[in-house]
Amino acid sequence: MQSYIIYTGNSMKDEASALTLYSNILQEVAERLQCNCITPSSVSEPIFSFKAETKSIEYHYKRSFGGFVAKLTEEEANRMARHDRVVSVFPNGKKKLHTTRSWDFIGFPLQAERAAAESDIIIGVLDSGIWPESDSFNDKGFGPPPSKWKGTCQTKNFTCNNKVIGAKYYKADGFFSDDDPKSARDVDGHGTHTASTAAGNQVSTASMLGLAQGTARGGAIKARIAVYKVCWYDTGCADADVLAAFDDAIADGVDIISVSLGGFSDENYFRDGIAIGAFHAVRNGVLTVTSAGRNNGPRPSSLSNFLPWSITVAASTIDRKFVTKVELGNNNSYEGISINTFDLKGKLYPIIYGGDAPNKDYDGSESRFCFSGSLDKKLVQGKIVLCESRSKAIGPFDAGAVGALVQGQNYRDSPSTLPLAGSYLGLQDGATVYDYINSTRTPTATIFKSDEIKDTVAPVVASFSSRGPSLVTPEILKPDLVAPGVAILASWSPVSPPSDVDGDNRTLNFNIISGTSMACPHVSGAAAYVKSFHPTWSPAAIRSALMTTAKQLIPSENFQAEFAYGAGQIDPSKAVFPGLVYDAGEIDYVRLLCGQGYSSRTLQLITGDNSSCSETKYGSARDLNYASFALSVPPSNSSVSGSFNRTVTNVGSATSTYKAIVTAPQGLKIEVNPSVLSFTSLNQKQTFVLTIEGTIDEALQSASLVWDGGEFHVRSPIVVFRAA
């Protein structure tokens, strides 16, 4: 027996009457049904006697809503839930103060130490705009923008404040639609979501129609936001607009540029708007953070952002997941995944297989996938439709169905939101549902509202998250880091349908979505947090601090290991005090580009100076002073040989000594020379060489180097891999 909360809905004005009602309900439920074990010959059924057990109300609610607390058995709780005066019954569980999870999950609580300079940090968000009225962007308690801010606010259908200090929109083609008018206002939701994840205020009553209820917040809650709308509802994100936004953002005085966009496909870095913009940003001391992109994982080399001068972020799970129960008319139930806010209240509806309901000009081989227009409205209206393959269930929605069951085996770690009640079942459960539909003349089913459960194996890299190695410079390990990107709750544009399906009329202030786009602003916020403690640090130093303090993930539990998660999951609090950093600047990236075959003339045009590749060329990408090590081996070769030159800068204790600790698999000999680094002052630099010799018998093998300074542990991943 345990304590349960019984919620009865609206409060009653008369407290005495309310208590009487509660007591009556409780005693009704507490009656024990007992058989007297005698069946007289004159009746066909046993005679039952009732024994009432006295129950007491532990606590009752009386001001804003009605309900009470009482101790019940599980059977009594189930009976109570069916009472016609009861809305819901749930265990009185022990809860802790918490947020919508992602920041707390990575070990970055709301109470983390904050630098006064955080309010001087400006994050530029290149995205679909922002919904300025969101509580996440209220400027209560904020002073005027920092003096370095040189940007402006385009006020057409938009108002800036001391939190959102600037807003601009870009549309080089000059064509605007009624669906997405000429304004920095976000009608898509994506930009509002990413901006609030990076730097949104603390909002204590956030949820998606009751799901994921808690306190939503960004990483750098005191930082300012500058909005650069480059993505449009009807035309996407044009390179010309992206470049124009970078151009302005750098001149406006932002510190971090957050870019949850992708699409790079050229082996020439300077044929891509993000690559060009980010290069000029780093020249001006501005760090660019990008999503891994494409969401085409787990296929190798599926990254769309892998710039050596930015941070590339992959997506991982957190310790919360959403499951959606499906119950059939035969009382069998199955657990799928989705973000389902629709409540069918347990009512059973007829269920039909999409392949049995083709519309005119379609056949079952097409309608089974439930594409838009493929289903006969007369056959599916008011029913639940079983569909093959993961989809948005637009066909059932357009045809008037009450629900949809989609089935498949891809991306089962990422719940989606459908425009109607729905759940994503595994192939075996989907096949069982199909068999049930064909086993009875009147098959029925119902779909329950989603439940939140604990994910005990998190963090794991999401299956959709794009993997390395980089197609252009495979010996620069990408992605750099992983951050929460699955089922992330953040602010949303209330005019945007949560399922991204027209006709879905739910209005939300917060939405739950997944993608590397959601992971990227976590790192943007973390980078801003580090920058607030170290305003003079270069973009590379901040990247290094985040990488060398990251939490290592388990290679065997993540397909492609470091090519899935880089250095690991961010830990913003630790990144403020990394001990040592691997720094780099414009000249280092120029030397890298020279080594990649770019001519002196090309680079002089880019940099505006007289650099000569004959003087500065890196012989290999491995020479870039990066906080990770990647060595490529020819496909047919098992022998390994390579070296890396690195320089570390002391940012920890003035007087300190670090010892190299190498962890390597059998068959690889990894040496560091010198193996001990001694420092006598802050900002002092020391150089070392890491060499790898041996053989590999797998396509990818993982190792690591840790510089152990006692107080600080500076970890870098090492990967040896066969080139494709």
From TrEMBL:
This is Cucumisin. GO terms for biological process: proteolysis; response to symbiotic bacterium; response to symbiotic fungus. SUPFAM superfamilies: Subtilisin-like. Belongs to the peptidase S8 family. Residues 119-568 form the Peptidase S8/S53 domain. The active site is at 127 (charge relay system), 190 (charge relay system), 517 (charge relay system). Residues 623-720 form the Subtilisin-like protease fibronectin type-III domain.
